[in-house]
Structures are given as C-alpha cells and as structure tokens.
C-alpha cells in the first residue's frame, strides 16, 4: 500500500478523541428498556434486590458513557445522570400512554404485550423519549447515536431534538423522518413514509426552527411530506397520503390529492 | 430514584407472563431457512444423518417456543408442530417459484444463488410464508415476532395474516407495508414503498376485511398507496408510482399521475 | 416429515457451491471502515506496527473471501486484492469529501465525527464506494452482499454498479433505491425515499443502461421517483418531493407538484 | 515456509477422518450433568415440558456425536443412545450415594450442594460413571475424550474402562491416576496423588489385566502407588501415604513407611 | 426414558435453592485481580474515572453474588461488601510481598511481571487471600467456589479457611493440598505435591483443628505429606521431599529419607 | 474505599508496560497446533489456498504478539518469526516421533488419533517444543506464558528452557515438573508426579545448571524426585516410583525403595 496513505491513517487514529463505545451504548439502552418493560426482558428476577442490582449495573454503563464525554458536557456526569433518573418516571408514564394509544387505534393489535414487543413504532418512540431527555440535558453525540440505533432497527428516524406530545401513534413507520426542530402536539397519528422536514438547508440556520409544527389530533397518512419551519398543521386536520405540503394548513382541514386519472 | 416507581417496575416484572425468547425465535428461523436453502447455510453436512440431526435440533426449538405459548394455543404444541412440518414442502415449492420469478424478472439478478442470498424481497417473503403458515394454525404472537425480524432486516413489513399468491415478486422493497387482511393473486410484482393498507381504523373492525385485494398479474410501482377493504385492483392492471388509490380499479387498467409541471 | 422432501433438501445442500461466509464479509467490511475512519474503531493502537498488523489481518480476510470465489474471478485473487489496495487511497479521499459535504450541508450536523459515526447516508456511501471498486474489478456476488449489509443497516439500497460522482450528499436516506446503471454527477444531494430506477424490466436488457443519469449539482427531494435509462436530469435542477419523472429534464429546471387541494 | 512441508500438512488435513467436535462433547456433558444435578444448572424451568425439551435437545447432541463415529460403533447409534438412556437412572443412583459418602466422610463439607458444586472428586466421578457406561457400550474415543475433560478440570485421571464400586470417595484428588483395568470395590476412599497403575507396559498386554484390584472398604492415603494386574489390596486395609506397592496385601492390613529420620 | 426418573429430576430442579452463578463469580474474581494487578488486565484506562467505573461495575457483581446468598449470610450483604472492601488494601500489600518473595527466591523468575502473569503459585495465593477474607466474614459457599477456580487452573488446592502468613512462596505447586485448619507462619516455602492434611476424618471433628501448623521460615520439599491437627513443624525446619510426617518436628530440624538403595 | 489505595492502583495501571494479550496467545497456539495436527482442528479446508490463508492469518497473530514485545527482543520480530517458521518442520517431525513412541509404549492407546487428541502428555510436549523453539530465539515472557497454558490444561509443567531429546514419552503426567536447565536424552519415559528440580535456589544461580541430566532410555516411575544440577541419571537406568534422588546414578541402574512394612 501507499506508505504515506497508511501513515496518514495511523496519525488519524492517534489524533482521534475518545468516543463512547457503540456496544456499551446499545447494552445500556437495552438495559433501560428491559427495566421499564418486562416484555423486552428474558430474565425473571427472584428478589427485588436482584432487580435493583440489575438496574444499578446498567446505570453504571450510562455513567461510563457520560464520563467518556465529560469534557463536552454542560454539567458533571453525576448531575446529568441524576437528572436523567429523575425524569425516568415521566418518560415511563408517557410511553405507557403511547402503548395504550397504539393498542386502541390499531385493529390488528391484540394486547399491550404485542404492541410493546413487536411494534416498531413503539420501539422508535421509546428510544426517542429517552434520547430526547438526554438531549435536553445537553449531552452531545449520545442522543444521536441512540436515535440511529432505533433508525437502523425500525427505519424510523426521529431527531432527538424533536418535541413530541402525548399519545403519539406511529403505524408501520418505515421511512418516517422527523427533523430536529419539529413540534408535535398530543394524540397525533402518523403512518409510514411521512417526512416532517426542512425546506432549505443553509448551514447558518442551525439554531432556527426549520421543521414544521403539528397540532393536536392531526392524522398524517403514508408518504406525506410536510416541510418548513413556519409550516403549521392545525388541530384535527387530516393530511392525505403522498401529499407535499410547504405552507400552513388551518385547523380541521382535510388535504388530499385527486384520485389519479385512469387510462384503460 | 423514586422508590414507588422502582417498586412498580419490579411488580410489573413479577406479573409479566412468560414470552418465548426472541433469541430462540431468531435461531429457529435461521435454522429453518438454512434447512430449506443451502445459500443461507455456512455448514456442509458430511452425512444425511448429520443433516437430519441438525433439522431435529432446530425443530426442538420450535417445540420449545410453542410450548412457552401453550396456554394460548388452539391445539397442542405437538399437533401444531406436526401440522407445520406437513406444510413445509408446500412452502418450499412456493418459495422456489418466487425465487425463479424474481430471477426472470430482474435484469440485474445473475442467478438463483444471488437472489436467495442477497435479495431482501426474497428474504421477507420466505419469512412471511413461514409466519403465515403458523398464523393459519392459530399460533399467537410468534408470527408477528417473525414478521418483525424480517421487517427490521429488510424494511419490508408483511402482516403474517396477509394471503399472498404464487410467484410474488418484490423488487427492492424498503418501505413496503402489506396489511393483515390483504389478498394478493398470482404473478403480482411490487416495488419499494408500496402500501396496501386500511382506510380507517376503528378498533371494532378487527375481524373485518380492512385491506385491499390485488388480482393476478398486477404490477404496482414504487410508492403507490392502495387503501380499503373493498378496494380491488383488477387482473393485469398496472398501478403507477406514488399513486393514491382508495377505490377499486377494473382489470387491465393503467393508473398514473400526469407528469408534473416544470418551471424553468 | 415427507421423506423425499427431506432427501431433496439434503441433495441441495450437497450440490451447493461454496459461498464466502457472510460473517467473514461483515468482519472484513467493519475492518476496512475502522482502518479508514477512527470513528468506527473502538481500539487505540499503541504503535504503527500494531496498526499495520491489524490492517494485514483484515486484509487476509479479503483474500480468503476472494479465494472462495476464485473459480468465478476474472483475474487471480492476488491481483484483485492488489488492485483493490491500490484504489483505497482514492476511495478514502472521495469519502472525506462526502463527509465534508454532508457537514456543510446539514444544519443539524455538529462536526465530522458526528457525520461519520451517526449518519446512515455516509455509511451507505462508504460501503458503496468500496463495493463499487470491487464491482469494477469484476468480483461477483461480494459487492451485492456488501451493498445488502448497508441496505439492512440504513434502508438505503445502492446497487454496486452505480457510478456516483464526488461530494454526494444523502440526507436521512431511508427508502432510497439507486439502480445498477445509474450515473450521478458531482455535488448531487438526495433525500429519503428517492428512487432512481428502471422503467421496464425485460430480462434481455441486463447489459443496457436501464436507469437514469443525474448531472452535477442536482437536488432531489424526498420521495421523488426518476425512471428510465434515457432519462437525464440536467445540471443544477431541483426535483420536488414525491414527483414521478420518466422523461429527461433540462438543466436549471425546477420540477414540482402543485400544492394539493384543501377541503375544509 | 518449506513448500513440501506445507503441502504435507494440507494432505494430512484432507486425509483426516471426521472426529466428533470437542465443543459439542463438552456441551453435551455439561447438559447431562445439569439434567442430573440442579447444582450444575443456572437455569430454572417453569414447566416440566420445558425441562423435557431441554433434555431432548441435549440428547440430540449425543446422537450427533455417536453419528460422527458411526462407522466404528458396534451397534447403531440409535441403539447405543437408547441403552445409554436406560442406564442413566442407575448412574444417577450411584452418584447420589457417592455424594452422600463424601458428605458424611469429610468434616469440611457443609451440605450436599457444596459437595456437588465444588468437590473435584465428585465431578471426576460423575464424568467417569457416564464415560464408563459409554465405554461398556463399545463407543470408541468418546469415553476417553470425556475422561480428559474431567482430567483437565480436576487433575484426576480415571480411565473410562476402570470398574468402580459404590460409594467411592475421592478427597482432594489432584494427581490421582486410575488405569484401564483397575477394579475397585465398595466404600473405598482415596486421597490425592494415588496411582493405581501398570507395572510393565508391553503393547501386547492391551487385553490383559494390567492394573490392581482394590477390595471393599480400603482407604488409600495421599501419594500411594499401587501397581500390577495381580496386585490385590484386601478388604478393610489401609494403605499409608507415599507407599509403593507392587504385591498383593491381605485383608485388614495396614501398610505404612516408618517415620523418616530426623537430623538436627 | 423411565418416566418416574425423569419426573424426579424435574422435581429436584424445582426444589433446588438459588445458587450464585459460577460465571458471575468467575467474572468478579477476574475483575478484582485485574483491579489489583495490571498484569492481569488487557485494558488501559484513559482516566481515573473510567478506572473507578470499572471497579464499581465489578463491585456490583460481588453484591449480586452476596445477595443471592443473603438468607445464609451472618450480616447484611451491604455490610459484608463494605468489610471486604476495607480489607482489600491489606490483601494487596500481602500479595505484593508474596510476589517479591517468589521473585527473590526463584532463579528462573525474570521480574515481577513474569511472576504475577505466569506463576500458578502466585495466582492460587491471590485467590486464596481473597477467598480467606470472605471466609472470615462468614460468607458460605462462595469462598469454596473461588478456591476451586484456582484449583482447576493451577492444581493447587488451598481451603479458604487456611491461615497463611506473610511472604508465602509456592514453587510449581501442582498437587499441593492445604486443609481447612492449617496454620502457616511467615516466610514459608513449599514445593509441588505437598499435602498439609488431616490424619483421621470423623465427621464430628468439623470444628476442631485437624490439620498441621507450620512455623516461620520452614521449607517443605516436593511431595511431602504432613498430617494431623497436633502436628507442628518448628521454625526454620526443612522437610525433605516425599516424606510422611504425622508427629511434631522441633525447630531447626532437617527431615529426609535415606537415599534409596541401588541395584545394578 | 481508601482513596490513596485506589489512586495507587490507578497509577500502577498507568505505569504498566504493554503485555501481549493472553487471549491472542492462546488463539495463536491453538492455530499452530491445528495446522500441525488435523486432530486438533474442527474445520475441513476445501482448497490448499484456504488452508494457506488460515495459516497466514494465524501467523499474523504471532507477529502481533512478537511486536508487542519488540523492545525486549534480541532481533527484529520479522527475523524471529522467520526463524520460528524455519524450525517448524523439525518440531513437527519430532512430535510425530513422540506420538508414535507413546502409541507403541501404552497398551491402552488405540491409534495415533487417540494419542494426539486425548493424551495430555502429548499436548504438553507439543506446546513445549514450540515454546522451547521461541525460547532459544530469545523471546521473553511468551514461552513461559505458553508453558503455563499447557500446565493449566494438563498439570504438566515443563520450563521452556528444558532440553528434551527425541521420542519422549509422558504417561498420565499430572504433577510432572521439569526445570529450566534440565537435559533429557532420547527415548526417555516418565510417569506422573515426577520432579526434575533444583536442590537449592539462591537467586545468583540463575545462569548456572541447577537441574538434573537424564540420559537416553531412562524410565522414571511416578512420583520420583530427582534434584540438582550435577545429578546425572545414566543410560538405560530405571528410577522407581516415589524415590528421592540428589546424586548421580550410573548407567543401567535400578533404583527403588524397599516394599514398605506391613502391620496386620
């Protein structure tokens, strides 16, 4: 091989800062989800103490991850870990409501166990609510690594910065993209292939709202694309499949395409 | 952590019913696919007996899985296992035809080995035909867990309840959603991002036909969305990409959108 | 089980040619990516020699893979391996430019480390540029197995035959399909769900150009479908989301759908 | 490397007959021991059916092992497997007595659980009783591979051909060697470093009794060496530590060395 | 299989109390040894915090182990864990002296690194000093499981109850047996195959001193057997190889066998 | 925990030099043994090239190990590796003779396959001949780590410095200790528990001959202890079990203990 090329790669490796181990992050995520939902867990705990030890062992993984990012954290790893733990009950309550909403909304769902253990939309949302929590605490990189784990597993991409209301229902979900400054109200339902994205993407807009706002009780059918930071979809609106929306839509609207022409 | 929150999680874990291990299910599925198609198998068997033992060892995994669901099975695990085994040759024949259909339909496919070992559409269909078989035998949860394995790997989501005819061809496939009460005829071809879904979703419709019927020899291009239990796409029709269809289409139809306007 | 069915499966296994082990291929790919980008690597190397040994150990994996395909290679495994190594610096330079382009184009991207370690579009492109290199060297099956690894992980499917110019930017990406005879110029940007596909698919077209050509600086928004071997999208054009394009578009064009009708 | 040397090694590998996998043998052995003694098992079974499935899965491993040796078996693998299973209850009863004998004989032993889970003498005996059973059924190689597993783990080497009576007590045990044609009565106790070996070793003696006979209730202290096929240690004798015995000893004997000289 | 036999085994498994997982115990032991001696550790820690997290994660394993034994502990798992941690510095100091003593006593030893990483005598002693510490704290079963790990690895068996002075030197060591109530002074050196055992073993002697006392600066050569609770080997004595000692020996003694007879 | 104790451990870890990974060493050793003897290998190679690649991959491990020791090597890692490879055929020939000698000497051995795959004496010797080769090339630490792997597995401890002639036969072997400056002639046979050790051990004797010399065709029975650098056992002598020898013995001698006294 070209020697200087090889040398350069070696120097790159020497210069590279430490990153948290992807395997450790995956293990910790799995551990939190197993703690919150027995459906994700293959283990039965014979005592409450054993359950606590399992929790603590997993918790040390978060600490290890935060520690490897410590130079870039806004607060100490200790404080962030504590704040995350304090938020966990609220995250759990929110996810319980999400599971119930999916169950009551999908005729194919048999029970909550099936929703938690087999619905990719629920999994993606569970990861998002955890990642969003860490994002709000100012943790860099980790939230994005978490959301990519869910993305790879489900095909659903939710930027950890996105704000999502209660009882959010994703049906099927593959291909969904939800951008960093999206805001979604309560009781929203969304199908596969929906994009909530940015209209234009100059780098200096990093701190402005670039993605749409979805109000309460909106339904967005498969393949709809809604773009732009000023775009607001009003309460109780229904957005038809495969639509392309770049301007705000008032409350109670129904937006759809005409049925296509047929040629026989 | 909040003590009552922790206590509640522990009680949840104590109350949770037994579920079949996801790892065991994945292992079994891999084993069946390796049995049916040498392309999935890294092992060479030196004797027929060794091959049989491999089969039986894998078969015991299915038994273990069924056994952990036994309280919810319509028949004994023994009977269901036997019925599944009896169906296996027909599943194999069907998948052989599927592979041939993909090979003869895709100019990029070099040979059957390439189709079986690298086409996500074939993989998703192979898992579906096995899951559908278990679904018809009344096995709960397992068929959905199988279809989610394929969904995670391929981005193709086929509900195990869907009825799919012979020589079904999926090209690319990411984003395809095929609902629980879909019926698909023979020699149908379908591209990525196609949805065969429900129009409305009130929970009391769980036992009604909510998803469309696709007749023989229909071709559905990328991104088409076809919705509704009464919607029938007639024989030999071609559905254009990104179309949105909520009513029946007669045989031999061609449905497409006009070419979009250009602005220079 | 039906005896003749079982016997036939056994004979299938006996007849099956040797295939490179999927696990070995995955390990090698991971090794190359770790060599090129420290962001993919959890290991620190204390000496340049250790780094070299790591490289060589991984390189032997490629040799093993090529060797198992040797009867189907156009040149010796030794020659192909050498040619691949000679191409690696150019592949690296190209990927470095890709990472920079993503970073400067996406307001949500914080730094190059985040792009390399969490952007599925970058990962898919990295795998593609390696697979394309092997494809040009005439290696069968392996390039497709590589592209499927990336497809499974990212939902982005790029056929290893596709020719892609410099500074290619994929945003989000789930659902993207790029066909075998696609040609893409420099500085092209593409969003999720875009298809660059074939219009018709008769098997005898295997050696003809069946997929579109995209010229420099084109932007293609989410869900656009561009089909056909004669279809050329001219320089500096913008293709709107969810469009369906089967004819050539001149340079500097903007193609979009009208905003859909609203019904209140 | 020397080319002809390398070529010869390759030809050796090609010529080599199939051997049962050491890993499979270890797994099966662990499985049988876990079946017989919950102390060896980390898993709790929620139903009797699950326990049975575990047993059957392990049993298939034995079948696979026997099958790979089939050309050298005196009966079919099916018959040998069945005969082994039929012997298992007797082996278990015998081992239960052994554990009780160790417990009642060693003041340091707290309970049967401690004996089964931590006494190397019990482990070596458990493996021996299984290996001896297979040895009597005419299985080649496997019994020796089993006894070597125990030898490596405990430093106790018992040839699978040795006949050992009931309630055999090994204390400590490291360095014990028990030869192929040894016969040991009931209620014998033996300490570490004891050899029951052959006096002379010409190859044509393979089918003659070359190792000693130990009658009921004999105690043999650490480091004693007893050699020869005609050597019989009579009932109720005590053999002192570090003794060297090559002739028969009558019943009720006590054999010891004088206390060594002291030099001050 | 015999049905009642199978049923009995199942009931045995149901009745069996919980035991700490052997794997967890092995992991914890490895973790403590790695913490104390970098020679046992393959990992470099980039920060002190990372090192602390590693320690704490391992510490939780001890807690989990103690917890599974909680019904049989004399104090709470919390208290025992704390007491063990408080003892750790003293254990470390003691082991440091042991390593130095081995290094200065064995001409074949090159440096402390070689002693720590390759001397089985040091390994066995390291495990013993940890196990003895837990033994004194009243922990059941675990100390014996630890000493068996060392026994399996080194062939050296030291009962966790044995009291061993400072700068203890084991050379080679295979076959050494040191009983429960042994007391060993400072600067003692011992070769392979030495037994410090009990003379007689009636079960009611469990709480009496059954094993010998070795005073300061005694050297015991290979294969010596010293038995009995009243047997004391006086200061500065040398015990020759293969001797058999059942009575006390005064200080400064040299005990040996005559050189054996030769027959030409 | 005591803070300064913890801090000191951390500093120890920081100061510790790099050591070759024990896992890598074990993997390499297994690879060499599998290369030399198909009995150790579970894999069949379909082509000579595949076999070569396997060899080369393993060889890189040796290189990696040597590299991590490079500051302490007398020659470059490249040269040492080449010298080792050049010695390999002679090592193989020697081991082939050893296997034949064991087979023809032990009535219990059925065939060469059984000897290679189940005889601990053969395994220990195989590891020794490799370790001795590296020892002569001046490699530090690694030879001792190899001999400890064999010691742990077999209970046989052979210092890598020991010089051992052709057709060396170890029967059983547990407890054998062979010191650093031992010299053993051709056709020697040795049983378990034999020590060839040093008489006295002052540290300044590191470079002198401290261990005995055993001439051709000597047989040494179980438990014999032969000590001292000036001690020579003459040709064709037989050393009885449990003997203690500290002076030279002429050729053709027979050394034994009287049969012990009996007390009835």
Automatic annotation (TrEMBL), chains A, B, C, D, E, F:
Cited CDD domains: LbH_SAT
GO biological process annotation, one example: amino acid biosynthetic process
Signal peptide, first to last residue: none
Entry-linked SUPFAM superfamilies: Trimeric LpxA-like enzymes
Keywords: Acyltransferase, Amino-acid biosynthesis, Transferase
GO terms, molecular function: acyltransferase activity
UniProt xrefs under PANTHER family: SERINE ACETYLTRANSFERASE
Name of the protein: Serine O-acetyltransferase
Source organism: Neolewinella agarilytica
């Amino acid at each position: 091989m070209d020697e200087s090329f090889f040398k350069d790669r070696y120097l790159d490796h020497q210069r590279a800062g430490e990153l948290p181990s992807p395997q450790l992050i995956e293990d910790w995520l799995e551990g939190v989800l197993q703690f919150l939902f027995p459906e994700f867990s293959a283990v039965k705990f014979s005592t409450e103490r054993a359950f606590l030890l399992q929790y603590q062992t997993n918790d040390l993984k978060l600490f290890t991850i935060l520690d490897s990012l410590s130079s870039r954290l806004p607060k100490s790893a200790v404080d962030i870990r504590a704040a995350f733990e304090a938020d966990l009950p609220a995250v759990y309550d929110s996810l319980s409501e999400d599971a119930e909403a999916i169950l009551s909304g999908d005729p194919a769902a048999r029970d909550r166990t099936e929703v938690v253990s087999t619905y990719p939309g629920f999994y993606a949302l569970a990861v998002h609510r955890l990642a969003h929590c860490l994002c709000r605490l100012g943790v860099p990189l980790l939230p994005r690594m978490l959301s990519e784990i869910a993305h790879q597993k489900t095909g659903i991409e939710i930027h950890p910065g996105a704000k999502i209301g209660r009882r959010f229902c994703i049906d099927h979900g593959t291909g969904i993209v939800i951008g960093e400054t999206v805001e979604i109200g309560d009781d929203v339902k969304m199908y596969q292939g929906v994009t909530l994205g940015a209209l234009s993407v100059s780098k200096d807009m990093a701190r402005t709202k670039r993605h749409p706002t979805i109000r309460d009780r909106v339904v967005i059918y498969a393949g709809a694309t809604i773009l732009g930071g000023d775009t607001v979809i009003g309460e109780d609106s229904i957005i038809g499949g495969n639509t392309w929306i770049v301007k705000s839509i008032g409350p109670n609207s129904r937006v759809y395409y005409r049925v296509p022409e047929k040629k026989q």
